[in-house]
């Protein structure tokens, strides 16, 4: 069923695993991720960036596409459709109106008081509709679609501010920027586990780890033990699917049927998502 992230993440936090948010960029991603979740008996969050929504054809089409694929594939595991890095109150409302079951309001580039006020407005609307909300503090370096944060701009979240935002807004889960990066990592990730521990102790909400592509298993397990219940992955699926397309086209230069390379790309995404679900411990938790 289509559900919010609320129960999914509370259960994950309690039972010490993380639910994957896998971003959908087109039809094949959506197919691959839903099939992976069903096969693994895992809850799943379909992440939709504003850029991806624009590319696909709007929030409404995405909801219809997901609903119809869930019927077609007889999906029984819990699925959330979540706006990733919502940039404004208006965008969040548009996604909710279209049928998204969850939204992120990313006010991380605003001063704390403004971030809190904006997040609270979104929470008030969302909670009246049974929709879950994620917020962010600190700044995650790297690039995702149009969201670019340079090395100079990146910032680790401050635990006391995290506590303040969570208390003031009542968000369902929270993403503290603690050194993770959107896009490929240059060198080993340097995650701020000390602060993660502090935030866990100060607050009680499930934590979210953005930039989940390319994080070593040991760090994943550490993050989960410190209250992380949601891990976002996009880049890794993009890398494996594009690699598969290149391989097919190089091996068979005469191919022109789109399905002959998009099919294998879809398989690559499905395999990768299954691998992540096992690493995150969400397999057989649906
Ligand atoms: O919000 C989406 C994620 O944080 C994705 O990060 O593309 O580095 O896996 P990633
Ligand atoms: Zn992110």
List the helices and strands and how they pair.
Elements: H1 6-15, E1 19-23, H2 27-40, E2 44-49, H3 50-56, H4 59-72, E3 79-86, H5 89-98, E4 102-105, H6 112-128, E5 132-137, E6 141-144, E7 147-149, H7 159-169, E8 173-176, E9 181-182, H8 193-202, E10 207-209, H9 217-225, E11 228-233, H10 235-251, H11 258-280
Parallel strand pairs: 1-2, 1-11, 2-3, 3-4, 4-5, 5-8, 6-9, 10-11
Antiparallel strand pairs: 6-7
Helix pairs in contact: 2-4, 2-11, 5-6, 6-7, 7-8, 10-11
Bound molecules: glyceraldehyde-3-phosphate and zinc ion.
Zinc ion (ZN) binds next to loops.
CATH homologous superfamily grouping: Aldolase class I
Task: Give every kind of bound small molecule, once each.
Answer: glyceraldehyde-3-phosphate, zinc ion
Largest sheet at a glance?
8 strands, parallel
Ranges where pLDDT stays below 50 over 5 or more residues in a row are none
Keywords:
binds zinc ion; alpha/beta; TIM Barrel; three-stranded mixed sheet; eight-stranded parallel sheet; globular; binds glyceraldehyde-3-phosphate; 286 residues
